[in-house]
Amino acid sequence: MDDQNNILALSNAEIVMQLGKRFKEYRLSCQLTQQEAANKAGISVVTLRQFENGKMYNITMSNFLGLLRAVDCLDHVEELLPEIPVSPYAMQQIIKNKPKRVRHAK
Description:
Elements lengths: L1 H7 L3 H18 L4 H8 L3 H8 L8 H10 L17 H9 L10
Helix pairs in contact: 3-4, 3-5
C-alpha cells in the first residue's frame, strides 16, 4: 500500500526516472551491456543511457516496450492496464439471457 501512495505523489517525470533506474537493474541482472540492450530494443545507446540516468522524461511507448522486450519483461505489460472485470449486473444479464435448452426443428 505504501508503494502505491508513494507513486501517487510523484510527477510523471519522476516516475519515468525511477523506471529508468529500475530498467538498469534489470539490464545488469540479464548481463547485458548498454550497447546490447539498445540493439535488442532497436534504440540508440544515447537514448538508453539518458533513460537509465533519468535524463529522458519523454521516452516513447514504442522505445519502452522495446526495452522491456530486451530484458524479457514484456509479459508484465498487461499488469499496467488489466482488463476490466465483468460487473455483477452485466454477469446477471448474461446468465439471464443464456438459453436454458436447445430445440431442433422437426
